[in-house]
Amino acid sequence: MSIVNKLARKELIDMVPYQSARRLFASSGATEGKVWLNANEASGSGNYQVNSTSINRYPDFQPEKLISAYSQYSEVAAENLLATRGADEGIELIIRTFCRAYQDSIIICPPTYGMYAISAENHGADVIKVPLNKTMSLDLTGLQAQVGKAKVVFLCSPGNPTGNLLSQQEIKTALELFAETAIVVVDEAYIEFSPEQTVASWLKTYPHLVVLRTLSKAFALAGLRCGFTLANKEVITMLSKVIAPYPISAPVADIASEALAEPGLEQMNQRVLETNALRAQLATWLTKQNWCSEVFSSDANFILFRCQNNELKDFVFNSLVENDILIRDQSKQQNLENCLRISIGSERELSLLQQVITQSFTNNGATKATAQTLS
Ligand SMILES: *Cc1c(COP(=O)(O)O)cnc(C)c1O
């Protein structure tokens, strides 16, 4: 046994790191020329000014202009905000703050975002699974059975990779179930695509509610690594004891503040309108394809759909890869057999995707035979 394996925490030896969209295709060569529709990023980058005149100094722990810009945008008081290195850091901080390693647990509702379980495992917290219902709503009876058994409950609305919002009523019921025993996290990474559904204003009512936000999706800043945790002041104070001393670098604060100023917000709102329209078009197209058996309703910047069988799923996925278009295979997730997820890229990217799929089915005789066996 190597010295490293002898010394490392046992559970890390076999642990598989998060298979991010980037990592999955890191080995496939140049990133240029590829159409990236696998990580729910926005297409097209903005143009930002960075000020380096004070770069010799450490940044503020929480840059004031950034916090005040996000406070204004989110209508949540500055004292209820913590800026983090992406929403992913928020997830990690919550687990490290509330779960004792090798003693406490979190609850997740799969199919859901992968980082909740990864962060928990990394920290040595157990993961209790209460799968979503067939309609992708919360299994409230299942959750009730776990009351008292976990410190943190992760809900995702709109869900990733499912795409749908949880109803406010079911979130409320979950909050009430866990009022005495757990922090309830509502991950709103995609809330800009249906902003009226945010539960951020409930922070005043529920001291155990935490809302996660990010600039990675609707704000088109995934490469910046900037997110926000919205919570009761006591929660923020506690998380502040665990987070690194300078989580937000000065250039990050500059760019994020610019994105949150009026022109930036206008661009974001425009991007959301375009994305929602392109999503509707793509959903209509998918519904008409005979190899597609189900299109899930989406309130986010991606669409999840199910293929008639595993062969067709692989055929669609691989035909796209061969043409340098990358989407995400979600078929390993609970209840998502034969499912793929497409991020809503630009109009050009999505029409290319449709052309490639159509062409591949036309060209491929073997697959025609497969399609015949279906009808
Ligand atoms: C993308 C995503 C995140 C992470 O966002 P970052 O701010 O880029 O870390 C968190 N939650 C969900 C559901 C996401 O899809």
Query: How would a crystallographer describe the biggest sheet?
Result: 7 strands, mixed
SSE order: HHHEHEHEHEHEHEEEHHHEEHEEEHH
Average predicted confidence as pLDDT = 94
Which ligands does the model contain, each kind named once?
A: pyridoxal-5'-phosphate
What percent of residues are in strands? 5-15%
Structural class designation = alpha/beta
* Overall 3D form: globular
Q: Give the N-terminus to C-terminus distance in angstroms.
A: 55 Å
How would you write the strand order of the largest sheet? Answer: 2-8-7-6-5-3-4
Portion of residues within helices: 40-55%
Residue windows where pLDDT falls under 50 for at least 5 positions: none
* Helix count from the secondary structure assignment: 14
The beta-strand count equals: 13
How would you classify the quaternary structure?
single chain
Radius of gyration from CA coordinates: 21 Å
Question: What is this structure's SSE topology?
Answer:
Elements (H helix, E strand, L loop, with lengths): L2 H5 L2 H4 L7 H6 L8 E2 L27 H11 L6 E4 L1 H13 L6 E4 L6 H9 L2 E4 L10 H5 L7 E5 L11 H10 L5 E5 L21 E6 L12 E5 L1 H10 L7 H11 L1 H26 L4 E4 L6 E6 L2 H13 L2 E2 L1 E2 L9 E5 L3 H17 L1 H10 L1
Parallel strand pairs: 1-11, 3-4, 3-5, 5-6, 6-7
Antiparallel strand pairs: 2-8, 7-8, 9-10, 10-13, 12-13
Helix pairs in contact: 4-10, 5-6, 5-9
The structure holds pyridoxal-5'-phosphate (PLP).
Question: Could you explain the architecture of this structure?
Answer:
- The protein is of the alpha/beta class and 375 residues long.
- Helices cover 40% and strands 14% of the residues.
- Helix 5 (86-98) packs across helix 6 (115-123) and helix 5 crosses helix 9.
- The radius of gyration is 21 Å and the shape is globular.
- The mean pLDDT is 94.
- It binds pyridoxal-5'-phosphate (PLP).
- Pyridoxal-5'-phosphate is lined by residues 40, 86-88, 113, 156, 160, 187, 189, 214, 216, 222, 227.
